[in-house]
Amino acid sequence: MKVLRDSWLMFKSQFNVSRRNPVWLFIGMFQPICYLLLFAPLLKNLVGMPGFPRGGAYNIFTPGLMVMMAIFGVGFAGFGIIGRLRSGFIERMRVTPVSRLAMILGTLGVDICLFLVQLVLLVGVGLLLGFRPDPGGLALLALLLILSGMAMACFSYALALLFKDESGLAASINLVVLPLLLLSGTMLPLSFAPETLRNIAKANPFAYAVDASRALVAGNPGDSSVVKAFVILGVLAIITTFWATRSMRQAAM
Amino acid sequence: MDTLSQLPATTVATNGAVPQPQKGKALIKTQGLTRTFKSRKGTVEAVRGVDLEVRQGEIFGFLGPNGAGKTTTMRILTTLMPASGGTATVCGFDLRRDLGKVRRQIGYVSQSGGAEPAETGRENLLLQGRIYGMNSKEARQRAAELIARLDMDAFADRLVKTYSGGQKRRLDVALGIMHRPELLFLDEPTTGLDPQSRARIWDEVRALHAQGMTIFLTTHYMDEADGLCNRLAIIDHGQIVSQGSPETLKQEIAGDIISLGLDTQSDAVARVTGQLRDRPFVREIQPTAEGLQLYVSQGETVLPEVLRTLDADHIAIRTVTLARPTLDDVFLRRTGRSLRESNGNA
Ligand SMILES: Nc1ncnc2c1ncn2[C@@H]1O[C@H](COP(=O)(O)OP(=O)(O)O)[C@@H](O)[C@H]1O
Ligand SMILES: [Mg+2]
Question: Among A193, B194, B238, B295, which has the highest number of CB atoms less than 10 A from its own CB?
Answer without folding.
Answer: B238
